[in-house]
Amino acid sequence: MEDLFAYSNRLIAEVNTDFVRYAYQQVNWNNRLLGLIGPRGVGKTTLVLQHIKMNLPVQQTLYVTAEDFYFANNRLLDLADSFAKAGGQYLFVDEIHKYPDWSRELKLIYDYHKDLKVVFTGSSVLDIKKGTADLSRRAVVYSMQGLSFREYLRLFHQLTVPVYTLEQLLAHEIELPQLPRPLPVFADYLKVGYYPFAQEDDFDTRLQQVINQTLEVDIPTYAEMNVSTGRKLKQLLGIVAESVPFKPNMSKIAEILNISRNNIADYLLYMEEAGMVAQLRGDTTGIRSLGKIDKVYLDNANLVYALAKNNQNIGNVRETFFINQLRVNHEVLSSTTADFRIEDMDFEIGGKNKGGKQLADAKRGFVVKDDIEHGFLKTIPLWYFGLLY
Questions:
Q1: Measured distance CA(340)–CA(4) in Å, rounded
Q2: DSSP code of 300?
Q3: 179-212 burial, b for 16+ CB within 10 Å, e for fewer?
Q4: In whole angstroms, what is the distance from residue 164 CA to residue 59 CA?
Q5: Which residue numbers in the chain have pLDDT < 70?
Q6: Among 43, 117, 140, 334, fewest CB within 10 Å belongs to which?
């Protein structure tokens, strides 16, 4: 255990706390068993290390990763037992899904050690959600996604911008004198600003590794797929990437991929849970519309630029950004009169010349325009919606 402590202390000492992600304020760190899940590469490890450094006594805290060779010959349950007996109070287990039978052992740790607080993280969202079903009434699980445009401004440009509510955006209460020309940096954000690791070299290569790991390892392992089926996932993601946006035609996709149409809905759900796509659903009023998927987008705009290469559709990029940023605090549904509906509001997305004819009959309708710095009346700049978290 001495080597584990040395590794833990080194990582805690090295982590930078100048910038902390939005999820930090949303998590109740006092829970006795707490999970933090999200797609690969969004900064979960950094967040837990920052929490330790800023709040916890290092002598009573241990951070481990389930990928450590230590667990080749040792059980997590035994580590927790030894740690608690030695006076340990806070145990953090990163990449928990890499540890076999992790949910059962966490349950035992929770039951055996009443004074030990445990935090676990996982990138394989599918497996985590499956495992947390065994931890009902014990674990509190939070989800985390990539950088908002607001966070990107802080991390990449050292510009501190407050969080705004949706109603504040719609009322044009945005005051950012520190950002006189938002459009160039917003364009950069759409291409490389969603993942914190864009600060490092070889962003394109790193993002491709995230995509490959998710589609070739995480999902196939969870769903017990073979290698050839994993390749079908990549083909399906490619189809979504170059669509405008993608409206599911199960029969046509099945023909292109040479698979059963009955499997496609499952594949899309797996990719949604793993942070590769976002599915836009209709209003769930009534049995017939329950769960109906109207459109499928890539999860975030960075993925569009990475996967569609030179064939990006700018309308697709705009809509992808909108649903990605709004879904953190709001339920985003498809609209019968516009592109999106949130509560009693309809939103039509477009460029600076976009009109509002579709919204003539809307109770509360807004035109969201890209390529404009400031809004007026019912016209809202697209970049405003990156300030919500």
A1: 49
A2: S
A3: eeebeebbeebbbbbbbbbbeeeebeebbeebbe
A4: 39
A5: 124-134, 284-291
A6: 140
